[in-house]
Structures are given as C-alpha cells and as structure tokens.
Write a structure and sequence with these properties.
The structure holds two protein chains of two kinds.
Chain A (H helix, E strand, L loop, with lengths): L2 E3 L3 E8 L30 E3 L4 E9 L13 E7 L15 E2 L4 E2 L6 E6 L2 E16 L3 E9 L1 H4 L13 E2 H12 L8 E3 L5 E2 L10 H12 L2 E4 L5 E4 L5 E2 L4 E4 L10 E6 L1
Parallel strand pairs in A: 12-15
Antiparallel strand pairs in A: 1-2, 2-3, 2-8, 4-5, 5-10, 6-7, 8-9, 9-10, 11-13, 14-15
Helix pairs in contact in A: 2-3
Chain B lengths: L2 E9 L4 H4 L21 E6 L12 E9 H7 L3 E7 L4 H11 L6 E9 L5 H9 L5 E7 L8 E16 L2 E10 L2 E4 L12 E2 L2
Parallel strand pairs in B: 2-4, 9-10
Antiparallel strand pairs in B: 1-3, 2-3, 5-8, 6-7, 7-8
The chains are: A mainly beta, B alpha+beta.
Chain lengths: 266, 198
C-alpha cells in the first residue's frame, strides 16, 4: 500500500515478484516446457507494493560534475526495509513472497524495482544485491541495493556489426537494434548527435555499456536511464533555445525555495 | 579567447587497442584531467587502421586545440591524446575546441530542496525534473555585496532523493548550461547572451 508522507506526497515502492517466478528457462523440466502458458519469455511483471514496510529510500542518479565525472554510470537506489514479521526474509518459506517453485524468496537479483511519488517515477531499475541483518532477539532489517538498466548493459556483448560512417545516435541505434535492447516503443530517447563516427571496427569483446561509453567519448554528451526507465542519449551541449523546467530562488513568490547550495568553484 | 587548432601524428605503439579506441590499464583513454578547473590544451585522435603483418605500428593522427591566453595565465593544462571513434580530423578538432576550458568556472551546485516546505505545484515541478532539465537559480546577497542578486541558468547532471517516513530531500547537481531562453519583449534587455529569438 502506498504511503503518504506529510506535506510531501504519496510514495510507492514496488518490487517485481513475477519476472523471476514465471520466466521461461531453456532446458528446465518445468519452466522450459514448450506450448504451456505458465512460463513466459522474460516472465510477466507482478509488482508488489511494499511501501508500508520501507524505512528509508535513497536514490542517486546521474553525476555531480560533468567536468570531473564520467557519464554512463548506472544510477542506484537503496531501499531499507524494517522486516518485523520476516516476510522479506531469505529463509522464511511461509513468506507471501516465497517462490515455492524455486525454493527461495521471489525478490532476488535482477528483479524489477519501481519507486514513485504521486504516480511519477523517481527511479526504475533492478535489484543488484539483497541482504538481511538480524539483531537479537528478533529485529530484521533488509537492505536492497538497486541499479538502473545501464548496469544490465554490462552483461551484453557488443554485437557483430560492420561500422559505417554515421552520427553517434545512429551508431547507438544500430547497436541496440542488433543486440535487441530497448526494442519496445518509447524505450529510447536519442537526441541527434553532433559527433560523426567513422568506420573503426566495433570491438565485439566489450560490453554494450563500454562501447556506448566509447561512443560518448566522441560525443561528450550524456548517457543515462531516465527515472521512468527510458534509455536517453543527449548530444554535447551546444547553444540551444530551451524553456526552463524550474525556477529556484530565495526571493519568495512563486519561485521554488531551496534550503542550501554550494558555489562550486571548479 | 582565440583557440588555435593543429593536426599532428604520433606512432601507434598501442596496437590493436587503439584501432578500437579502447582503454587499457596503462592508458584510460579518457579526457578527464587530474585538475579539471582549467583545460587549455586538448588532444583528440581518430582511431588508426588495424596493424597488419606489413605495418605493425600504424600512425595515430590527432587534432590539438590550444587556448594560448589561458596557457599564458595558467601554464599548460593538457589532456592526454585520447583516441576516439570520430570520422575525420576536423571532427576531432571540433571536439577538442569544445573541451577547452580556458578559465576556472564557478556555479551554483548541489542545491538542496526540502519537499515538505513546498506547495503542491512546486513539488510536482521538482518531481518531474530529470537529468538534462534546465533550471535557473537566483540568490540574493545582502548589502554591500555587489551585485545584490545573481541568477544562473544550468543543466541538471544528477539528482538524488533521500526519503524517510517524515521527509523528502532532493539534491540537484547542476552544471553550467549552454542554452538560451526566449527573449521577452519589454522585459529582457538587448545584448543578453542568455536570450534568443525563436
């Protein structure tokens, strides 16, 4: 059940129980049988609202300083859960989240995660680490570390492609198309790049993420996953006409007040 | 500040890695300098052809951009030669000029906002911000500080949220932007570099 934070909004933390519990597994005697309707390719999402049990959420997306920090680093989220009845425990077989088919908790590595405020996503990603600490006599705290889908791109090798002269965004499109990544409508948001790439051969020994970073080394724009899970590529900053998305000020009125800031001298 | 662009070559002793524009343990192949405050000499290479049995050591061609005035003020602040996937030396020269930072910059960054203290509309605006969003930040300073008000327009490079059962703090990591906002007749002034016509 979503939770309202006073004078902040309504927040929802969801963990996907479905994708890991009904995904088709090649050669598996149960989950790998063809012509059945229970086990599906990639599984089907079955998000469980766990907000009521959450003690704290920290989300860190993007980078702090574009002159110093590389872009294309996965964003992270840490969810801390006060697990008073052990429903999130790794050993509780009567947990409502227990995957009896696999004999382990349904929330595990690569399970989908969504965090939202008033229906707008603040983070979308996957579980990268799930740990539980128990203090005697019976206090259990579960910490769930998450990353966005950039993290998963480490697990895909760059596909075999013959490089042709094309813009940076076109190269990213070609790699994703060949690798079958972000193929659903609306999953990519690519700006037209400024960098013209040549025919240097594509290094198939690298991960897709590493190759994207090489592409961006030529562009010097941004690679990131948006809060809603969309892959985004921004070209290098050129003079552009653009509206402001927010006006912050200490002068009152309709401007948004801030509590502090730092004058970065760099 | 004038930037001079030249084209140069070096012998490729890296071998096949350079053909792929690949980082190695010895050479990270990144522009990030040890001190990013000022960068007045930037070297951008294009990937060389793969070595052959006839020619083991190919040649790396690179463009170099130098901001001479900045070199005079701060000494040489140089990036390594970074091998990119760019097509031509002209492309490499464009990137080298883009990466020049002739003088140190300062900006309003790490802006902390407490969501509890905002109106519903303001909270919605903050919630909808994402990497790449453009924001303006205004700070008023007490007399005799001059100017009394400073406004900066910046791009969001990062954002963090710290959420507990009773509060939500958002931190915006802003960096200087190269954007223009719309010129408003009878409001904005001429010769303002941050304003443009559609």
């Amino acid at each position: 059940m979503s939770v309202a934070i006073p004078n902040c909004g309504t927040y929802t933390v969801e963990l996907d129980y479905g994708a890991t519990t009904n995904a088709f597994l090649l050669d598996d005697p149960v989950a790998g049988v063809l012509d059945q309707s229970v086990y599906l390719l990639e599984g089907s999402t079955d998000f469980q609202d766990v907000t009521a049990f959450v003690k704290q959420v920290s989300i860190s997306r993007g980078r702090q300083n574009r002159f110093r920090d590389a872009t294309g680093q996965p964003s992270t989220a840490v969810i801390q859960i006060e697990d008073s009845d052990y429903r999130f425990s790794l050993v509780n077989e009567s947990s409502p989240y227990w995957n009896s088919g696999k004999g382990r908790l349904g929330f595990e590595l690569n399970s989908n995660v969504r965090i939202s405020r008033n229906g707008t996503y603040l983070f979308t990603g996957i579980i990268t680490q799930y740990s539980q600490v128990i203090e005697n006599p019976n206090r259990s705290v579960v910490t769930i570390n998450c990353s966005d889908e950039l993290f998963a791109l480490n697990n895909f090798k760059t596909p075999a492609l013959t490089a042709v002269a094309q813009r940076s965004d076109e190269r990213i499109t070609a790699v994703f198309d060949e690798a079958g990544l972000f193929t659903r409508p609306g999953q990519r948001d690519l700006e037209q790049g400024e960098a013209n790439l040549g025919t240097a051969p594509i290094d198939e020994s690298t991960s897709v993420l590493e190759y994207l970073q090489r592409v961006n080394n030529s562009e010097q724009g941004r690679i990131f996953i948006k809060a809603d899970g969309t892959f985004a590529f921004d070209r290098r900053l050129i003079g552009e006409l653009q509206d402001l998305d927010a006006v912050l000020s200490d002068a009152g009125g309709t401007a948004i007040p801030y509590s502090s800031f730092q004058i970065v001298n760099n | 500040m004038a930037i001079v662009r030249t084209f140069n070559t070096i012998e490729d002793v890296g071998g096949i890695e350079d053909t792929y524009a690949a980082p190695t343990p010895q050479r990270t192949n990144e522009f990030t300098p040890s001190n990013p405050s000022v960068v007045n000499t930037v070297n951008v290479a294009i990937a060389p052809p793969a070595p052959t049995t006839v020619d083991l050591n190919t040649t790396i061609e690179y463009a170099q951009a130098i901001a001479a005035d900045s070199v005079a003020d701060f000494g040489v602040q140089e990036t390594p030669v970074v091998v990119t996937l760019l097509e031509t030396l002209d492309d490499a020269g464009d990137l080298a000029e883009y990466l020049i930072r002739p003088v140190p910059a300062f900006w309003f960054g790490n802006i902390e906002i407490i969501m509890n203290g905002l109106s519903d509309a303001q909270r919605t605006v903050i919630t909808n911000l994402d990497i790449g969003s453009q924001v303006s930040v205004t700070k008023s300073f007490p007399s005799p500080s001059t100017p009394s008000t400073v406004t900066q327009i910046m791009a969001l490079e990062g954002i963090s949220h710290d959420i507990t059962p009773d509060r939500h703090i958002v931190t915006l990591y802003t960096n200087p932007a190269r954007i223009y906002t719309y010129f408003i007749l009878d409001t904005d002034e001429l010769d303002d570099d941050a304003k443009a016509l559609a």
